[in-house]
Amino acid sequence: MSVFNKLxxxxxFLFGGIQGVRAQNFVPPxxxxxxxxxxKRPVIDRWIAPDKGLHLLGSMxxxxxxxxxxxxxxGFKYHTGMRWAMGFTFSLGVSKELWDSTKxxxxxxxKDLSADVAGILLGRCILEIR
Length: 130
Hints:
By secondary structure, the chain is mainly α. The chain has one domain. The chain contains four helices and two strands. It has helices at about 5-15, 50-75, 80-100, 110-130, and strands at about 25, 40. Helix 2 packs antiparallel against helix 3 (about 80-100). The chain is flat. The two termini are about 20 Å apart. The model is unreliable at about 20-30 (pLDDT under 50).
């Protein structure tokens, strides 16, 4: 088994496997709220969670795939393609968190964004192992 495969397995096990994140963020309205309204329950955002593993792996794969695609298909130089791929991946992560913040059962998670940055850096490290 290659080092890369061992690293992926360790990440998946560390973050609890790849599975959907179940959250029950809403409680029924009480007498102090108007009828039909939902009261938002605080969202628990843990550092070690399956969601963070998905952010890390997704950002890592997008950085590596983006760099290689820009290099091979569009003629970008190595470092230029890597910078573009890293920037695109980061902007995609920020956009996803901004989109999450508009949903009533989600928040903008700095921890998710940190996992995205860690995935981008891990992707860059993988690209440096040529």
